[in-house]
Design brief:
Helix content is about 35%, strand content about 15%. It is of the alpha/beta class and about 350 residues long. It has one domain: TIM Barrel (Alpha-Beta Barrel).
């Protein structure tokens, strides 16, 4: 069976339902779904919990995927020029930032940087558990009048709605899935974010992912069997990929029944292997004016229930080599909505997989 058939066969049990936002948007935005679930905006507190990546050198500095940022893609507001701050410092900084600026009071702890399942299950339990404890200590220090009963510390009924763990498909197994499922059983919303980028083995080999599409399909299957929500990272505009190949990638992800998708547009990040390739004249990058219709094509083939986390990469302008001026994410979102409206279309219109019953 090819990867598409395997993905479709295994993804057909997905029962994730779209949230009711069709009146205002043609895209099933995760931000709106979370608002519908919890009655308020939910913020991701992205942290670097000190994980390494099995695909980079032990000090995290060398090797890895050719597009990967030297800092393993940590949130912009957590970036420092010196050493990595402690988890407590990162959580405090993120809470102060989101609470002061947006009056935030609903959060996900987002294990974001590098490969956040790259340790033994015992060690992972210690790291996740410690971060949750630190969240509560910090939250109570910053909000002394908000007393949250301890039984709500691992329940989505309190301010901490859940955890998100970002990882590689080849660093995820049944034991790790069970550990994450235990947080869900305690009442948290739990997401695993799997990097795929492309559903074409020749592209995965070119961008040096060091795993094949079949490994991704297996990891999605493990996560689904443990009832974890799954977000897939896709990259549009990778060197050597045609429009048809990118839509084919979206179709494969649709067949897995992924509950979430995070689109990135390919950026030549300073310090990455692709930056060296660009300077050597080996690669170039797609013009952002191609993105709205390409994203509309991909959204049309995804299930209507898949929550869209974002449509483009999130780098500061000085972090990448910008052959073309990157498009502002709000402008891009408006252009994609407009393109879907022009087609009288919406996310899921061309989805051919089995729909939830
Ligand atoms: S797996 Fe993730 S952290 Fe590791 S090199 Fe690739 S993109 Fe970077």
């Amino acid at each position: 069976m090819n990867n598409h058939k395997v993905a479709k066969e295994r993804g057909r049990a997905a029962v994730h339902m779209p949230c009711d936002q069709k009146k205002t948007s043609r895209i099933n935005w995760q931000s709106q779904c979370l608002k519908a679930r919890y009655g308020e905006h939910v913020w991701r507190l992205g942290i670097d919990a000190g994980f390494t990546c099995p695909h980079r050198s032990p000090d995290r500095q060398e090797g890895g995927c050719r597009f990967c940022a030297p800092d393993g893609n940590i949130s912009a507001y957590q970036k420092t020029k010196t050493s990595v701050p402690t988890i407590a410092q990162q959580i405090e900084r993120a809470l102060i930032f989101t609470q002061r600026r947006y009056h935030a009071n609903a959060f996900f702890l987002y294990f974001q940087a590098y490969t956040c399942t790259n340790a033994s299950t015992e060690k992972l339990a210690q790291i996740y558990g410690n971060a949750i404890d630190v969240f509560w200590q910090t939250y109570e220090k910053l909000n002394p009048t908000h007393h949250i009963p301890p039984e709500l510390h691992t329940s989505s009924k309190g301010p901490l709605k859940g955890i998100i763990v970002s990882t590689r498909p080849d660093c995820f197994d049944q034991e790790k899935a069970k550990l994450l499922a235990a947080y869900m059983e305690q009442g948290m919303e739990v997401w695993v974010e799997l990097g795929l980028q492309s559903a074409h083995d020749q592209t995965l080999s070119f961008i040096r992912r060091n795993h094949g599409v079949n490994v991704f399909v297996d990891a999605m299957d493990i996560a689904q069997r443990n009832h974890l929500k799954r977000t897939v990272h896709l990259m549009l505009g990778l060197p050597g990929e045609s429009r048809a190949m990118m839509i084919e990638t979206a179709r494969l992800v649709a067949n897995t029944g992924a509950e979430g998708v995070k689109f990135h547009d390919f950026r030549i990040v300073k310090g990455s292997a692709f930056a060296r390739g660009f300077l050597a004249g080996e690669i170039t990058a797609m013009h952002p004016s191609r993105l709205p219709s390409l994203l509309a094509d991909c959204l049309e083939v995804l299930p209507p229930s898949t929550e869209i986390v974002r449509l483009s990469a999130d780098f500061r302008p000085e972090e990448s080599i910008n052959i073309h001026q990157p498009m502002d994410k709000h402008i891009l979102a408006r252009l994609v909505e407009a393109e879907l409206a022009r087609r009288d279309s919406f996310q899921g219109r061309m989805f051919t997989g089995r729909r939830p019953t």
